């Protein structure tokens, strides 16, 4: 069973081919402008950045605890039922 989809695109809409390269280049930041924008953004959102780092640290800590617990559980069952029977 084939399903076909139809997309209606208006003919009068502009496409990127209608925009000149000089117009597009206005939207790119220079390396200095990008660095300044990054500094401003990080200063404005430093609490959010700190919270995200704490969440990441906490999740990594939980993963490490689970790995340690799994290793401890595996070492507890060093012998299988059959090893104990034939030991």
Describe the structure.
With 87 residues, the chain is mainly alpha-helical. The chain has a domain at 39-87. The chain has helices spanning 21-25, 31-44, 46-76, 81-85. The longest helix has 31 residues, at 46-76.
Short description:
By secondary structure, this protein is mainly alpha-helical. It is 63% helix and 0% strand.
Uncertain stretches of 5 or more adjacent residues = none
The percentage helix is 55-70%
* Overall shape: flat
What is the end-to-end distance?
Answer: 62 Å
How many alpha or pi helices?
4
Give the biggest sheet. Answer: none
Strand residue content: under 5%
What is the H/E order? HHHH
Q: What class would the helix/strand composition place it in?
A: mainly alpha
Radius of gyration: 29 Å
Tell me the quaternary state: single chain
Mean pLDDT: 77
Total DSSP E strands:
0
Key attributes of the depicted protein:
87 residues, single chain, 63% helix, 4 helices, flat, mainly alpha
Layout of strands and helices, then pairs:
Blueprint: H1 21-25, H2 31-44, H3 46-76, H4 81-85
